[in-house]
């Protein structure tokens, strides 16, 4: 039967049926605090090392929270040209570097037809860092509301619209199918994967370069989280400042980074003998319709997102053997999330490891859901679950197995990853080994 | 998707419009039929120091009665407009999501750059006074999914929520995503897009796109498909819809059934220099194929109408190649509003639905020297009364985005 997006053009054979089309990750690229590249990233996570430090990207001394997880990123060394560095915001630079790694990892270049290839990127903050510094320039450091049209970057429009990031990647991968940006604040990285998987299942594309990028460690971002005390002020101990599920935690640590995946229709991947990391089998999002920044008590919406994502994957809760937590290290989140996991998974929530890698890489806003997905894919691959660092004094209200301090060898076949963010968005993503799911 | 695998056809049951030439569906539609333009000299800030000074600016309005006071300090102008449109759409549909099952209703909107006027105020506070003067609302008031979040909160919509950014094409992508949620089991979605946050800072960024007309004459600044075309005029506003699963809509006795989204296609242009053709034609073909509609079944095309000679030519050739030279009536009612960034394509969808309802194709204005008369049957200056059952809406976004949507009058 025909379906949306079916195109007979270019003689490209479309495998499967829309009902039967399954979606897998065949390439991973990462730019993360503590290391560029997926291997360094996995080493950091499994060593339980933290990458949270005093902010060095700008002088943060006037601010309440002065801790962040920054990427040690040298764009020239990472292969970008001087022109690209001048033109692209750091968010796009991350996306291109991680995108290239994912493409190389999957070996997909030249093996996919442009019409059947797409790009979908997530971001919470777009080119905030460039917009912040450019504003200082064109407004004479805030002296003039009438900004000066003779100053500022020639690339301001690219910073204005985050869709410019997806467009750059589309040219790299020669995508002429669906291209765009999904933005849902701090759930962007999870939601963009769900959206991309939908597009492939539906038949709109066979391959989508997808992921999320954020690089917003800049004065405006730090100031706006200071204003609502969402970030920690543990400035005297930056290495241990991100403390999800710990009794002493008092806010998140701002991070930055990017993960990009080659997402591919399963038969398309098998036909070219691609290495398959994981299947993306379920996703759902819910709005809490409660507050742009706050969470209500019971975690009903997150629980429903989890249940709906499991339904989509046709998994019983008992199939899940690891939960990658949102674990932002705000008191409100950690309790809300713990309640939502118990509500949706039942007593099984107590039987499986639940960890937050934000303890090590901070909270990179829209990007972090993609970075967490990369960690999940590698957990499936290596049968190791990354820990929750800094968890030395468990919050008595958070009573699940949060894998404190050290990584754990643990055979993992199916993973739930959850995300929660401003706007009231609550999302869940299900990943598994393809053989775990008989369809 | 139903058990038989047949795709359901979600139906649009409510429309809300905020536009430079009308702050409700009725006001906008009568302005469009009269040919009243909302393009004028900018009043929200002094534009005299910039090379362009006109826009489709929404005039000052009194938010009392339209919005609760408590929302004013935490919302950008764009979000207030979106909340007004969402409320109109839900009232039009006579639907109250708060009374429906908990997760039955969701929101997907399109965005381009977020609440930039709000963002400029906070950047100004940061740089002139210091971080302590930045608003507690900045963290979400500017961000891309702010309209989705605020609509969901105001109306108690706890189902799927998202925002799509694809510059001027994103509005159609958002509608397609909302339709996907309906097919997956959600009962009702609010979708579409309202955009526009004019301030000196957003204006400077928009000018740097290099696509903006520098004419100061509101009647000739934005003349797509005209030999004098010299760029676009941007504007504020857009449209939001209530779209429902057809069975759920019937069960609750929805008052209106404006139309069905029958087909959708989206493509991206190849990198320049590859010699490959632009993607707009393929977006049209994908939308028609999904709609199982022949070109001859399309009664009108709502054009993207970029207003620059190169882009207009691509669109004129695309339409002529699919429908034949002068093969279908084409209109660009955005000549009355300017290009509303992420809100423009949803407004065109709304205009198409109203066109079907009333059996009239609204006119393109200000195009006095048509450049592609051999290719395009452009409906100019006066509306054309004719039956409209099926319409094609085209939208493009800077960078290479193309989307196309086929809507059909509900039966």
From TrEMBL, chain A:
Alphabetical GO biological process terms: fatty acid elongation
Listed GO CC annotations: cytosol
Pfam families xref list: ketoacyl-synt, Ketoacyl-synt_C
CDD domains with a match to the protein in the record: KAS_I_II
Swiss-Prot/TrEMBL keywords: Acyltransferase, Transferase
Keyword Transferase: yes
MF terms (GO), sorted A to Z: 3-oxoacyl-[acyl-carrier-protein] synthase activity
Every Ketosynthase family 3 (KS3) domain range: 20-433
Keyword Acyltransferase on entry: yes
InterPro entries: Beta-ketoacyl_synthase (IPR000794), Ketoacyl_synth_AS (IPR018201), Ketoacyl_synth_C (IPR014031), Ketoacyl_synth_N (IPR014030), PKS_Beta-ketoAc_synthase_dom (IPR020841), Thiolase-like (IPR016039)
Superkingdom as given in the UniProt entry: Bacteria
UniProt family annotation: Belongs to the thiolase-like superfamily. Beta-ketoacyl-ACP synthases family.
Protein name (database record): Act minimal PKS ketosynthase (KS/KS alpha)
The organism of origin for this protein: Actinacidiphila yanglinensis
Automatic annotation (TrEMBL), chain B:
Record keywords: Acyltransferase, Transferase
A GO molecular-function descriptor: 3-oxoacyl-[acyl-carrier-protein] synthase activity
Occurrences of domain Ketosynthase family 3 (KS3) (ranges): 7-409
Pfam families, alphabetized: ketoacyl-synt, Ketoacyl-synt_C
Coiled coil: none
InterPro entries reported for this sequence: Beta-ketoacyl_synthase (IPR000794), Ketoacyl_synth_C (IPR014031), Ketoacyl_synth_N (IPR014030), PKS_Beta-ketoAc_synthase_dom (IPR020841), Thiolase-like (IPR016039)
Superkingdom as given in the UniProt entry: Bacteria
GO biological process: fatty acid biosynthetic process
PROSITE patterns in the cross-refs: KS3_2
Family statement: Belongs to the thiolase-like superfamily. Beta-ketoacyl-ACP synthases family.
Name under which the protein is recorded: Act minimal PKS chain-length factor (CLF/KS beta)
Biological source species: Actinacidiphila yanglinensis
């Amino acid at each position: 039967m025909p379906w949306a997006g079916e195109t007979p053009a270019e003689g490209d054979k479309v495998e499967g049926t829309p009902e039967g089309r399954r979606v897998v990750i065949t390439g991973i690229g990462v730019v993360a605090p503590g290391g560029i590249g997926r291997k360094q990233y996995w080493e950091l996570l499994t060593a339980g090392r933290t990458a949270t430090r005093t902010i060095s990207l700008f002088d943060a001394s006037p601010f309440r929270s002065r801790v962040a997880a920054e990427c040690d990123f040298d764009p020239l060394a990472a292969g970008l040209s001087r022109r690209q560095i001048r033109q692209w915001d750091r968010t796009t630079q991350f996306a291109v570097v991680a995108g290239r790694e994912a493409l190389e990892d999957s070996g997909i270049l030249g093996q996919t037809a442009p019409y059947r290839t797409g790009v979908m990127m997530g971001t919470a903050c777009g080119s905030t860092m460039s917009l912040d510094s450019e504003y200082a320039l064109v407004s004479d450091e805030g002296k003039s509301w009438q900004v000066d049209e003779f100053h500022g970057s020639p690339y301001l429009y690219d910073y204005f619209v985050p869709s410019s990031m997806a467009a750059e990647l589309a040219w790299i991968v020669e995508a002429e199918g669906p291209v765009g940006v999904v933005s849902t604040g701090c759930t962007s990285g999870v939601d963009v994967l769900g959206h991309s998987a939908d597009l492939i299942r539906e038949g709109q594309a066979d391959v989508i370069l997808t992921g999320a990028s954020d690089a917003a460690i800049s004065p405006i971002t730090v100031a706006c989280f200071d204003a609502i005390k969402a970030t920690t002020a543990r400035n005297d101990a930056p290495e241990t400042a991100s403390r999800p599920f710990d009794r002493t935690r008092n806010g998140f640590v701002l991070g930055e980074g990017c993960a990009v995946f080659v997402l591919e229709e399963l038969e398309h991947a098998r036909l070219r003998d691609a290495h398959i990391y994981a299947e993306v089998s379920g996703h759902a999002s819910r709005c809490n319709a409660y507050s742009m920044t706050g969470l209500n008590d019971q975690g009903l919406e997150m629980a429903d997102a989890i249940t709906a994502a499991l339904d989509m994957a046709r998994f019983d809760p008992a199939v899940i053997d690891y939960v990658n937590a949102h674990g932002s290290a705000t008191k409100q989140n950690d309790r809300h999330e713990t309640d939502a996991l118990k509500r949706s998974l039942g007593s099984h929530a107590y039987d499986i490891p639940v960890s937050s890698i934000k303890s090590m890489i901070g909270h990179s806003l829209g990007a972090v859901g993609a970075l967490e997905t990369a960690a999940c894919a590698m957990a499936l691959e290596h049968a190791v679950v990354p820990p929750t660092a800094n968890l030395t004094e468990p919050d008595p209200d958070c009573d699940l197995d949060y894998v404190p301090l050290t990584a754990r060898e643990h055979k993992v076949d199916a993973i739930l990853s959850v995300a929660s963010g401003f706007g009231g968005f609550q999302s869940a993503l299900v990943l598994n080994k393809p053989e775990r799911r008989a369809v | 998707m139903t058990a038989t695998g047949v795709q359901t056809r979600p139906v649009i049951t409510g429309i809300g419009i905020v536009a430079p030439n009308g702050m409700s569906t009725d006001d906008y539609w009568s302005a469009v039929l009269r040919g009243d333009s909302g393009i004028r000299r900018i009043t929200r800030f002094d534009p005299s120091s910039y090379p362009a000074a006109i826009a489709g600016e929404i005039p000052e309005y009194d938010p009392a009665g339209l919005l609760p006071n408590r929302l004013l300090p935490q919302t950008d102008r764009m979000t207030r407009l979106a909340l007004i449109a969402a409320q109109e759409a839900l009232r039009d549909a006579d639907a109250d999501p708060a009374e429906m099952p908990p997760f039955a209703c969701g929101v997907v909107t399109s965005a381009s750059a977020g609440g930039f006027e709000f963002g400029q105020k906070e950047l100004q506070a940061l740089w002139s006074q210091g971080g302590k003067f930045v608003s507690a609302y900045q963290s979400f008031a500017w961000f891309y999914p702010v309209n989705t979040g605020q609509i969901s909160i105001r109306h108690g919509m706890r189902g799927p929520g998202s925002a799509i950014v694809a510059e001027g094409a994103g509005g159609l992508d958002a509608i397609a995503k909302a339709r996907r949620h309906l097919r997956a089991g959600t009962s009702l979605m609010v979708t579409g897009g309202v955009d526009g946050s004019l301030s000196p800072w957003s204006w400077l960024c928009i000018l740097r796109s290099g696509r903006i007309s520098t004419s100061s004459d509101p009647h000739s600044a934005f003349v797509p498909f005209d030999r004098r075309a010299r760029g676009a005029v941007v504007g504020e506003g857009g449209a939001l819809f209530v779209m429902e699963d057809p069975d759920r809509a019937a069960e609750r006795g929805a008052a209106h059934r404006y139309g069905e989204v029958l087909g959708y296609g989206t493509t991206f242009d190849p990198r320049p220099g590859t010699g490959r053709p632009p993607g707009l034609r393929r977006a049209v073909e994908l939308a028609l194929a999904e709609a199982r509609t022949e070109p001859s079944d399309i009664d009108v095309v709502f054009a993207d109408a970029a207003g620059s000679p190169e882009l207009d030519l691509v669109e004129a050739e695309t339409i002529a190649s699919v429908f034949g030279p002068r093969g279908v009536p084409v209109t660009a009612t955005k000549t009355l509003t300017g290009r509303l960034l992420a809100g423009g394509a949803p407004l065109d969808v709304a205009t198409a639905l109203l066109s079907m309802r009333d059996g009239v194709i609204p006119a393109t204005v200000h195009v006095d020297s048509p450049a592609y008369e051999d290719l395009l049957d452009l409906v100019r200056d006066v509306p054309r009364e004719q039956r409209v059952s099926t319409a094609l809406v085209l939208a493009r976004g800077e960078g290479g985005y193309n989307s196309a949507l086929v809507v059909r009058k509900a039966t």
